[in-house]
TrEMBL record:
GO terms for molecular function: DNA-binding transcription factor activity; transcription cis-regulatory region binding. Residues 5-60 form the HTH lacI-type domain. This is HTH lacI-type domain-containing protein. InterPro entries: HTH_LacI (IPR000843), LacI/GalR-like_sensor (IPR046335), Lambda_DNA-bd_dom_sf (IPR010982), Peripla_BP_I (IPR028082). Transmembrane segments: none annotated. The keyword Transcription regulation applies.
Length: 336
């Protein structure tokens, strides 16, 4: 035992007794796997070098391909995917498609050459309705397991795990309606982005159902802070008293743009984001947002992929998980 880390320290952090920590370290007695995992996590957190007996047998690595890691929600996906893979004994090789960097096809080739037994794509090319899907079909033809996150494609006989955008939009519109809003705008991604289309279709359905066909204001733009800023002027011009954004970054951009135009948030304009990225509780005002169920989606994606790898058999399924509305300070009843 390291002189810097005591048995009691590990036990306190893991929420167990020192005797339980001892049993985990020495491999004696019966300890539930969830409890042992808590002890291992406490050891890692405190910087204690695990005994070799506690090291998991490493299985084949799994490749993760994400659009970028500068967006907090994608970094969150990367974290929870690699954590769940580690729990199952798979090292994670994480790649991002930075502009000007390697293409998705190149990343696939590199990861497979490195011995990856399967792949997980988060908002990859599959989430672009105009993209060529040949690389995914080639993976299926070669019986290489993979899972798609947030971009379901009925054309591909592959597992898909995504947010239930329909349920999220229904919840957001209901919340704003209960506050008294009737003029609600949507700032979303561009037309070719499948998540944006799903958000837009759901928005149209529930706005027409609640307020009629003439109630729609849809502003497509990039999923960025600057995209939200540029959309703010059109939101104000449309006379909207509330706006639902396709991402938290867009929502923060809308707040910035609206404020620069003299509008007060939430007094003049209520704003709902999407993702519940880190630090959204510390914005001014704290952002009301739809929390993307990242942990649930990551765990489901890894479970499906792990089953495919262990059974050496591809699956076809589509799993959808509803986001939760996190109410904070950026939504309030309209002034008029």
């Amino acid at each position: 035992m390291s002189a810097r880390v005591r048995l009691d320290d590990i036990a306190k952090l893991a929420g167990v007794s020192p005797a339980t920590v001892s049993r985990v370290i020495n491999g004696t007695g019966q300890v539930r796997e969830s409890t042992a995992e808590s002890v291992r996590l406490a050891m890692d957190t405190l910087g204690y070098d695990r005994p070799s007996a506690l090291s998991r047998t490493s299985l084949a690595p799994v490749g993760l391909i994400l659009p970028e890691l500068t967006n907090p929600v994608f970094a969150n996906y990367a974290h929870h995917l690699q954590l769940e893979l580690a729990h199952r004994g798979h090292p994670a090789f994480i790649c991002s498609q930075a502009p000007g960097g390697m293409t998705e096809n190149q990343l696939i080739d590199s990861l497979l050459s490195a011995g990856c037994a399967g792949l997980i794509f988060v908002c990859g090319r599959h989430a672009d309705s105009q993209a060529n899907l040949e690389q995914y079909q080639e993976l299926l033809d070669k019986e290489i397991p993979f899972v798609l996150i947030n971009g379901p494609r009925s054309e591909l006989a592959a597992p898909s795990v995504c947010v239930n955008y329909d349920a999220g939009m229904q919840t957001a519109i209901y919340h704003l309606k209960q506050l008294g809003h009737r003029k609600i705008a949507l700032v979303c991604g561009r037309d070719n982005a499948i998540p944006a289309k799903l958000q837009r279709d759901a928005y149209q359905t529930y706005m027409e159902k609640n307020f009629g066909a003439d109630s729609l204001t849809v502003i497509p733009t990039f999923y960025t802070f600057a995209g939200g800023q540029s959309a703010a002027q059109e939101v104000i011009r449309a006379g909207a008293t509330a706006v639902i954004a396709g991402s938290d970054l867009q929502a923060l951009g809308v707040i910035s743009g609206a404020t620069s135009l003299g509008a007060k948030v939430p007094q003049d304009l209520s704003v709902i984001g999407f993702d519940d990225s880190a630090l959204m509780t510390h914005t001014t005002p704290p952002l009301t947002t739809l929390r993307q169920p990242v942990v649930t989606i990551a765990n489901a994606a890894v479970q499906v992929l792990s089953e495919e790898i262990s059974a050496n058999k591809l699956q076809t399924c589509e799993l959808r998980f509803a986001p939760d509305l996190i109410q904070r300070g950026s939504t309030t009843p309209p002034l008029n």
